């Protein structure tokens, strides 16, 4: 348990949900899901597009925004140099 009384699994699930949210448009719809405001399918996150560098690992490899299709593959988040 963490000091807030939550299990590490709970924390991991909450963090995973935030990563999933990176694929939502500004109207709250996941990329490709119906979104009337986007005009059909949600166009996804307009701020961080797939392939964008969003940070670096401790080894200096780039952390990149994966495509929606590759979201659940951890290796797709890392671009090895
Ligand atoms: Zn939208």
Mean pLDDT: 94
Count of helical segments?
Answer: 1
Outline the low-pLDDT stretches: none
Number of domains: 2
The distinct ligands, each listed once, are: zinc ion
Give the proportion of residues in helices. 10-25%
Strand order of the largest sheet: 3-4-5
* Biggest beta-sheet profile: 3 strands, antiparallel
Tertiary shape? flat
Radius of gyration: 15 Å
- Terminal residue distance: 36 Å
Order of helices and strands: HEEEEE
Structural class: alpha+beta
Structure summary, number of beta strands = 5
Share of β-strand residues: 15-25%
Pick out its properties:
alpha+beta, 2 domains, 5 strands, binds zinc ion
Helix-strand blueprint:
Elements: H1 8-21, E1 34-35, E2 40-41, E3 53-56, E4 62-64, E5 78-79
Antiparallel strand pairs: 1-2, 3-4, 4-5
General description of the model:
There is one protein chain. The chain has one helix spanning 8-21, and strands at residues 34-35, 40-41, 53-56, 62-64, 78-79. With 81 residues, the protein is of the alpha+beta class. The protein has two domains: 1-47, no CATH class; 48-81, no CATH class. Strands 3-4-5 form a three-stranded antiparallel sheet, with no helix packed on it. It has a two-stranded antiparallel sheet with strand order 1-2. It binds zinc ion. The site of zinc ion has 7 residues, from loops.
